[in-house]
Amino acid sequence: MIGSANLNIMIKAARKAGRSLVKDFREVENLQVSMKGAGDFVSKADISAEKILKDELMGARPNYGWLAEEGGAEDGNDPTRRWIVDPLDGTTNFLHGLPHWAVSIGLEHKGEVVAGVIFDAAKDEMFFAEKGAGAWMNDKRLRVSGRHKMIESIFATGLPFGGRADLPLTLQDLARLMPACAGVRRWGSAALDMAYVAAGRYEGFWERRLNAWDLAAGVILVREAGGLIQPLTPGKDILEDGEVICANEPIFDGFAKVIRG
Fold it and tell me: Which CATH class is domain 150-260?
């Protein structure tokens, strides 16, 4: 699949950052880390990957805006476009030697995500999508799962850690959902959870208190793979509110009814 110039820039940047992260991942025990908050670490590898991404993306498109986990927000000369970047989604997995983390890049145009890349460098799986061009993993076209029954479906979420205030809500979600489905997974990377919905590996995903950089690339991947995606609270904005629910079309209504209570 040959994408637009912007998509090719994103894929190239993700691969370059991914190579750097894989190198650091092999020596994870030697990484120097500092506390960024309870259960939330930042590593030299994370900061280094963000610099690579910024150099590649802003070098190619210097007029675009920028929003990233470590570096914050910057306005661009072109107010209609911005990169939304998470250099290492799944930092805690990375620091524990668990090979489930990703580089995530979204491109927003006039408030809409129009392209997204999620690169699982440890497994060499490059998920990408562009508005109107479908969703892909490496050279394979992606479609959401075709399952129609909740009881046969697997869902993913994030479990609040470190005393976060949304733990009671998530436990209530699980109490309602688990008797009605085939299982719930918590693998520690929201970006890959959404990529896996797009790939049909999960039937659905929901989570609260995420950031725009966790979500941007996944939003377009799910949509372009034929999935439905909405804010958890109807009427809100996914990227601004940081709460999301998505699934294949046959499952979505029943899933959303369970989660929304």
Answer: alpha beta
* pLDDT tens digits along 86-103: 999 999 899 888 999 999
In the CATH hierarchy, which fold is given to the domain comprising 5-141? Fructose-1,6-Bisphosphatase; Chain A, domain 1 (3.30.540)
Residue 257: exposure state from Cβ atoms within 10 A (0-12, 13-18, ≥19) = exposed
Token readout for 115 is 């392209």
DSSP track, 71-98: TEEE--SSTTEEEEEEEEETHHHHHTT-
| Strands 228-231, 135-137: pairing kind | unpaired
Helix 190-198, helix 212-224: angle, nearest 10? 0
Its pTM surpasses 0.90: yes
Q: What is the CA radius of gyration of the chain?
A: 17
